[in-house]
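In response to the reviewer comment on reproducibility (Comment 2.3), we provide here a single inverse folding case reported in full, input and output, so that an independent group could reproduce the run without further information from us. The structure tokens appear first.
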């Protein structure tokens, strides 16, 4: 079945009026985009891992909704268009799109990813023959963030491959699919804790840990790092937004060993200085900072305790 994608953009003052109009047509499910939505994300930063940066630049005066009707609802789509244009609500666009398997189509873009000469990430649906001495991590992200293809994830994996040593304890904050926990374990970490607030991510991480038969090294916990974890790590990795990272740094101090390594990404490149300055203020030494595309990764060493 094909669908009709409808997008309406109006002024924020007409938000309630537009919602009532759509409700009158029986449209109850839609995506919203507004400055208010962005503000809500800021008030609840720990409930999400990734947001398209474009939404952060939305005008305070704009309100936009997007929804889908089936190909059998063309008459309804036409009536909505006439009503929107007749009442001068703003702009409306309609586009016919083919039915797609949204959950699986992205897989055609996820192929084996070499982290270095000794370790490669391989999706479950790809056949792969490792070289002699090469280690492989098999992964299916499911609905969780973290396949290794995104710049932030890849930079964290590169840093873990460089800094993890045999016998280390590693904490992975916001573990998503568990991919960073798996990299740390494959690189020799003796104990890895993956922590995430999202039960979907916890489930995906546990499945990937089991898929790689690494339950003895990796434990996945649901909750807030500062509530569910005791003890300290040699390395802490966090692939979250800059503001979230800065906000948790003081609490993080009690969970990292003297001169331990903190690897952070999920940072928009223009906000890298925000993270670096906050780390320096707490006595960290910046070891590396890299940029790929729009994203930055910062590696720092904690001070002596």
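Designed residues, in position order:
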């Amino acid at each position: 079945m094909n669908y009709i994608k409808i997008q309406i953009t109006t002024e924020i003052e007409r938000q309630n009026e537009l919602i009532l109009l759509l409700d009158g047509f029986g449209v109850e499910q839609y995506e919203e985009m507004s400055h208010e939505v962005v503000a809500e994300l800021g008030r609840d930063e720990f409930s999400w891992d990734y947001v398209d940066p474009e939404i952060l630049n939305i005008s305070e005066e704009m309100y936009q909704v997007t929804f889908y009707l089936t190909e059998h609802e063309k008459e309804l789509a036409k009536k909505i268009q006439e009503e929107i244009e007749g009442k001068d609500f703003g702009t409306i666009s309609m586009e016919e799109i083919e039915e797609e398997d949204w959950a699986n189509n992205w897989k055609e873009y996820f192929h084996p990813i070499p982290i270095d000469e000794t370790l490669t990430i391989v999706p479950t649906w790809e056949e792969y023959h490792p070289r002699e001495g090469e280690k492989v991590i098999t992964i299916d992200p499911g609905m969780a963030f973290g396949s290794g293809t995104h710049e932030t994830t890849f930079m964290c994996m590169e840093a873990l491959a460089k800094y993890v040593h045999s016998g280390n304890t590693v904490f992975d904050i916001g573990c998503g699919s568990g991919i960073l926990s798996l990299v740390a374990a494959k690189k020799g970490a003796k104990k890895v804790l993956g922590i995430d607030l999202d039960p979907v991510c916890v489930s995906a991480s546990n499945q990937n840990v089991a898929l790689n038969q690494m339950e003895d090294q990796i434990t996945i916990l649901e909750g807030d790092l500062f509530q569910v974890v005791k003890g300290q790590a040699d390395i802490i990795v966090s692939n979250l937004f800059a503001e979230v990272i800065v906000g948790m740094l003081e609490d993080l101090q009690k969970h990292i060993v003297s001169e331990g390594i903190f690897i952070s990404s999920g940072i928009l490149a223009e906000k890298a200085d925000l993270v670096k300055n906050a780390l320096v203020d707490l006595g960290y030494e910046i070891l590396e900072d890299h940029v790929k595309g729009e994203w930055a990764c910062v590696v720092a060493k904690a001070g002596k305790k």
